Hints:
The complex is a heterodimer.
Chain A: H1 19-51, H2 82-114, H3 120-134, H4 138-152, E1 160-162, E2 165-168, E3 171-174, E4 176-177, H5 183-211, H6 219-235, E5 242-243, E6 246-247, E7 252-253, E8 256-258, H7 260-287, H8 290-298, H9 303-333, H10 345-356, H11 359-388
Helix pairs in contact in A: 2-7, 2-9, 2-10, 3-7, 4-7, 5-6, 7-9, 8-9, 9-11, 10-11
Chain B: H1 2-20, H2 29-36, E1 39-44, E2 52-53, E3 59-60, H3 62-75, E4 81-86, H4 90-96, E5 102-103, H5 111-116, E6 119-121, E7 126-128, E8 130-135, E9 150-154, H6 158-169, E10 175-179, H7 182-191, E11 196-200, H8 201-211, E12 218-220, E13 228-230, E14 233-235, H9 239-257, H10 265-268, H11 274-280, H12 286-289, H13 296-304, H14 307-314
Parallel strand pairs in B: 1-4, 1-5, 9-10, 9-11
Antiparallel strand pairs in B: 2-3, 5-14, 6-14, 7-13, 8-11, 8-12
Amino acid sequence: MAVAPRTPPKKRDWSWRSQAFRGLLYQVIAVLLIGGVVWWLASNTAENMRIRGIKSGFDFLTQPAGFDIGESLFSFDSNNPYWKAFLVGIGNTLRVAIIGIILTTILGTMVGVGRFSRNGLVRGICYGYVELFRNVPVLLQLLMWYLIFTELLPDISEAKNIGPVFLSKGGLTYPGPVWESGHLWILGGLIAGAAAAWAYRRWATTQFEATGKLRSMFWVPLIIVLLAGAAGWVAGGMPNQWQIPTKGEFAIEGGSSLTPEFLAVLFGLVLYTAAFVAEVVRSGIQSVPRGQSEAAQALGLAKGQEMQKVLLPQALRVIIPPMTNQYLNLTKNSSLAVAIGYPDVVSISNTALNQTGRAVECIAIIMLVYLTTSLSTSFFMNWYNSKSAIKER
Amino acid sequence: MFKSGTKIVLGTLVAAGALASIPAHAGKTVDAIKARGQVVCGVNTGLAGFSQADSAGAWSGLDVDICKAIAAATLGDANKVKWVPLNAQQRFAALQSGEVDILSRNTTFSLTRDASLGLHVTGVTYYDGQGFMVTTKSKIKDAKQLKGQTVCVQSGTTTEKNLTDFSKANNLNIKPVVFEKVEAATGAYFSGRCVAYTTDASGLASVRNKEAKNPDEHVILPQLISKEPLGPMVRRGDDEWLAITKWVIHGLLEAEEYGVTQANVDQMKSSTDPVVQRLLGTTEDTGKLLGLDKEWMARAIKAVGNYGEIFEKNVGPKSALKLPRGANNLWNKGGLMYAYPIR
């Protein structure tokens, strides 16, 4: 808003020629204009839809959906209402987005760091990977992976298996635990373990700063978490029922499975986005002054330590903001899944739109979902960014 | 962003279409058509036998012929049609927003579509039912053998819901894999991702004929799981246009029933049968009541033939689709096609 003049007035001048007054006036006009346009659009849409006899409103959300969904994180029946169908879609979108973001971060960081490798082959592979995957449109990549999964894999009736893990055009089927309430204890144990591991790391850090004694910062916490999980399993009565998939006459029955649609979306998005993440990581590392690297070498740090302890922490500050963009891109690109039949929120919304004819409402829901996920992602990343920024004291 | 983009763009278009046309009464559809000198007809992007474009861009098919007949009746020339190929999701929005005057795109009539979309159903041009196509290799003989199987289906159709109803009624737990485009759905079926592909039986015949590498490797299961009355839809707000559409369809049926064909329509004008005389406008002026001239039906028949001829040419036993006449035969020949009297 208004920039303070060179000699700030003691008291705000509210005469009509004053900067403060004009500033306020322009803002009010801007808000009124925007509000007016929004109102005009909304009321015109409603009016025109009324004239054309198109029913509108969100009341359809409580009606039974009447269609099945191929894969869902929780049980869904066609008698369930539309809002639950939307939840299934949102769940599927988040599933692919969250797993995708984690895998993309790991792969992208590895490739980005790999471009500084002293091994020419590794460097070349990383370079080739980035150039290949970031220059091919992501939709094409999704279709390619889907084609690979559905054309090259064996038919369901001739599924290939390694022990109880089956791979076919029906996807990847593997043994899954039979759900019992005892499993909640494992979850509880893992959470408690994570808290204990965090406390341990905090203690170890203060110890290191005070005494210089280096303690394991990775293996010990990992063991703490795993032990706590195992303790939870024992406390939960040791549920050990597994559902082993078997080959039936027409299908593979039982077990958990990942569909080719899910796998294709995940592969496509991860490989595409990781290429960008690799470039972000590379640029971040390159932004660290050369002197830092030389200083690390002068201190006698190994190449790995140099990267892990000196370069990456400083690079992080440059990396995080563009990384946020990549996460948002991945989430939004997951809407392309509709092209290969993955029931994400766009796909569900399409079906709902066609069954009910509520185009404006369904599109609004899609927009709201992506807006919410994107805003929460960037909110979290901004928080993380401010946390890892240089503390200026 | 292309595929899902279409959807977003589409939704925005619906909104924008609703926003942009401020005048509450854009003029009657018929007036607009006459002023424009063209009927804008929404058709399928490609469904052999119903609507498809050849290499020269000329459209043919049963749905296409209905539009041609209506154009001939209304404007005097069957070629005064602008074709707008639409996919399943676009079709209703295109009609609602006025992008097309008539939607002749193998569209199933249902209560929801008639009552809540701001549209009207007109007359049935093809009685269909939903079926399943499976490979001969799968050895499936009955739709009830699809227990726990994956079935490929296109989104935005009544098909999805019928499949769910069928699965539920028979406790089959069928897993649908839903695709936005029909090409993607059939592609996934032919690649073996799904055990079966489901859509209207006529559509199955069309897909098998046009897209299968070897049509003999696929069978269409005899069981039909739904009723699919297909026909053109028009936008609400112009009753005259609704009437013209409806009565051209009845006229084509009436013509078949009374033996008026594309070839003999001119001779039939001297017929002494009062029904034929009324149909061809030699005595009573039936066209006047619809806002057309006397010759309206004669022109339509001359342009595309009667309903029987349209059927034979596009989808009947002699065409590539080889569909039996079945329920689409005239009422007095064991079918369901029954024309209201033109008088």
